[in-house]
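Interim report, section 4.2 (structural modelling).
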Amino acid sequence: MDSESLEPLSNLGEERLRLIVEAAPCGMIMVDELGLVVLVNSQVERMFGYSREELLGQSIDLLVPASVRDKHPCHRAAFLADPKARAMGVGRDLYGQRKDGSQLPVEIGLNPTMTDGERFVLASIVDITERKHSELLLEEKLLELQRSNEDLQQFAYVCSHDLQEPLRVISNYTQLLARRYSDKLDQDANDFIDFTVDATRRMQELVNDLLLYSRVDTKGKEFVNTNCSQIVAMALANLKVAIEESNAEIHCDELPAVRADSSQLLQVFQNLIGNAIKFRSSEALVVSIEAQDKGNYWIFSVKDNGQGFDMKYGERIFVIFQRLHTREMYPGSGIGLAVCKKVIERHGGTVWAESAPGKGAKFSFTMPKVVEGQRTGI
Amino acid sequence: MNRRIRVLLVEDSQADARLVVEVFKEEQINVDVDIVRDGEEAMAYLYRQRQYEDLPAPDLIILDLNMPKKDGREVLAEIKSDSALNTIPVVVLTTSQSEEDIQKCYKLHASCFVTKPLELEKFMSIIRSLDSFWFNAVRFPESI
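Predicted structure of the assembly:
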């Protein structure tokens, strides 16, 4: 037995000890080697519903729930065989039993102590009912949130998928109507048909994009080692026509490999480079793609010298179907950056923009460096 | 082939079935189109049961996949496992874009897999291709 760890309590004087124990904000009980209660404070009385007189001289096992009471003497003996200040029952949920038989969740700290050559154990007891309750509540809320997120994803997917059906019928028949009867109808009727055809087309685009957006999560693939230089090369190949038409000059650094869903990462680079080309200014367009090593993550960026935008829209541009221009000026439903954000977040990164009107824009995103097998993407 | 071509269109949606017929009309393609609305009906037609007793076998089947009762995949499997029917070409015409469906249909020996397009122009061009290939370029086996 390590007798040095036992503080001689006798030095304190019994009355002072009593005062200290009484003043403690948690319940405190001192028991002797046999487990008999020698000292309790009023917190314990309040917590367990026993009066001091009822506890003194009784076995501490009285406060242990009946279901585990018979094991307690063993635990006590084990503690006394190696008495060190420690928390009781680490990793287990501990409960105390009140006089009325009800139980309360507790946390217990055990301190061996020596007084007048006798060994005692001083236990501090905290009632964690409130904390348990909050933990439970938090857990429930988290589950609820997870469920509602899954529902929402499912909803978006089913919605966009099933909406395609009637939409296709509307689209085909309005077009057939226009084709077969436009010369038999007056201008108004033809205008109305045109509006319908146009709105149907727009709705199709929205539904398609919503489907694309919801698929980031529902149809995401497992993460694999992905060479970003190759991904950018593929994005540039896909954008070949736009690059040639805009005479864009593209600079791309040597990029690292990351763990990613490569087709989603391709989407990100293609969207960002595509946007740089789409929102170019009258100046000759220069786009630079680079990566910075930040220790345990990378920052990738796509920078251009295009039109740029006011940073008051810095957040809004990443929201689905948000656009800064009219459909007439620039086509598209405003899905690209929302998809980028969703993809990057799925990979454990963040995405942001820096820009000013007329000063070009720089879109950056982080990608964690992770040990193989640590992130699977599912 | 001098006789008129007979097409069996298996399609549960009235609007979609009519669209195929209207586009044939629009493109002035002269074929006889028989429409059945689900897979069970399709099999009754092909086995010449009930009201279909006196009909000749179709030259080509246009088959939707998602239908009530017996769906298109089951119909396709049944046709291709029946030696009396498996020489009839089957064009799958569906809203499905799923790779799984595409794989499955070809494995079940569909002649081709076409996704119903959103644009009428595209649909018309598909029907024109059907016409120029199936009704003009290829030879069908003699009807059984």
